[in-house]
């Protein structure tokens, strides 16, 4: 693995950690998330950064990890960055609770391989 990919994966993992910290800080409850724009914006920034970093990974890494939905991650970033008014909070919450921990686990697997 080239150093650039390693660094990017470490940054993605850090943003996953940041999402976990935000959930711990604000509350692990959808109704809290839905009613608190600061919570939403903070989590959105992490999702945007993860998507941006995903776009910088080499094709070699992406091809070696086909079980990671790299294109969907980048697509979610684009939605947040360019069409935030159409973001569905329930889908984002599910992403924060399920997909982000899974992405963190996958990044750790790739980094340790």
Could you walk me through the main structural features you see in this protein, from its secondary elements to its overall organization?
With 113 residues, the protein is mainly alpha-helical. The chain has one domain (3-112). Helix content is 81%, strand content 0%.
Give Rg in angstroms. Answer: 14 Å
Query: Helicity, in percent?
Result: over 70%
SSE class: mainly alpha
Number of domain modules: 1
Beta-strand percentage range: under 5%
Compute the number of helices.
6
Largest sheet: none
What's the β-strand tally?
Answer: 0
Give the terminus-to-terminus CA distance: 9 Å
What are the low-pLDDT stretches, counting only 5+ consecutive residues below 50? none
Q: Overall mean pLDDT score?
A: 93
Q: What characteristic shape results from the CA principal axes? A: globular
Helix and strand run: HHHHHH
List keywords for this structure.
single chain; mainly alpha; 6 helices; 81% helix
Please write out the topology.
Elements: H1 3-26, H2 30-35, H3 37-54, H4 59-64, H5 70-82, H6 89-112
Q: Would you kindly provide a brief summary of this structure?
A:
The chain has 113 residues and is mainly alpha-helical. The chain is 81% helix and 0% strand.
């Amino acid at each position: 693995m080239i150093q650039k990919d390693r660094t990017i994966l470490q940054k993605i993992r850090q943003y996953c950690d940041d999402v976990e910290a935000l959930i711990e800080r604000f509350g692990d409850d959808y109704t809290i998330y839905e009613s608190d724009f600061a919570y939403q914006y903070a989590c959105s920034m992490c999702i945007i950064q993860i998507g941006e970093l995903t776009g910088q990974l080499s094709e070699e890494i992406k091809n070696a990890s086909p079980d990671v939905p790299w294109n969907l991650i980048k697509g979610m970033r684009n939605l947040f960055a360019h069409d935030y008014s159409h973001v569905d909070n329930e889908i984002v919450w599910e992403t924060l609770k399920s997909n982000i921990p899974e992405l963190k686990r996958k990044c750790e697997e790739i980094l340790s391989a």
